[in-house]
Design brief:
single chain; 218 residues; 49% helix; alpha/beta
């Protein structure tokens, strides 16, 4: 894999927001504010089942583990030392699962990691990697999960990818071929979810609908 500076991406979401006349929402905020009712009910039921304290702990632990995992993958791509810190072994092993099964021998070019993307006047976000994978222009997000995921429960992942692809295509006049989720579970299982072809077009349209819902609420 090789690094190739193909486009000039914004330095950060903070500097990007300063360039706008008014603040625009993140992809994650749009998805949260337009969450379908059945998903809200399912989330509420889960919190009631495990208890708010335990639910908060699970979310915080997962967030910390995810941040560490992302950091290790970033170091690998930059050819930096992957030395672990005490108490972070699980995140390190999960990162290795994604590196070995998802990135090595598949990723050909890296245009940007932690790429700040935006759709003018509508939304912004950060995707984990933009480049070429298996000869296709690709946007990649890394995910971690306590348990394996069924594809039917990956709607938010696909909507995120679609949002990033719409933004990249709009600003840089590209035609990104695919979005890919590389996921590692706590038990070190690897999963790969691909968004392309008709499915990609479907989720682009679904995300555009969610944007409309968000701004109508305002």
């Amino acid at each position: 894999m090789k690094w190739k500076k193909k486009f000039q991406y914004p330095e950060s979401t903070k500097t990007l927001q300063k360039s706008f006349k008014s603040k625009i929402p993140s992809v994650s905020l749009i998805l949260k504010e337009t969450m379908p009712e059945e998903k809200k009910i399912a989330l509420k039921n889960w919190i009631e089942r495990v208890g708010k304290t335990e639910a908060d702990k699970i979310k915080i632990d997962a967030s910390k583990r995810g941040d560490l995992m992302h950091g290790y993958i970033e170091k690998f791509l930059k050819k930096e030392n992957l030395k672990t810190q005490e108490g972070t072994d699980k995140a390190y092993e999960m990162a290795k699962v994604i590196i070995k099964n998802g990135l090595e021998n598949n990723l050909e070019e890296i245009w940007k990691t932690e790429a700040v993307l935006y759709f003018p006047d509508r939304y912004l976000g950060i995707t984990d990697l933009v480049g070429i994978m298996n000869s296709k222009t690709t946007i990649i997000d890394y995910k971690q999960s306590n348990n394996p995921k069924q594809e039917k429960y990956c709607d938010d992942y696909f909507l995120q990818l679609a949002a990033y692809i719409l933004a990249h295509d709009k600003v840089y006049n590209t035609k990104i071929s695919q979005g890919i989720i590389l996921l590692a579970t706590e038990s070190f299982m690897f999963q790969r979810f691909v968004l392309d072809g008709e499915k990609l077009e479907k989720y682009k349209n679904l995300f555009l609908e969610r944007i409309d819902q968000y701004y109508k609420k305002l």
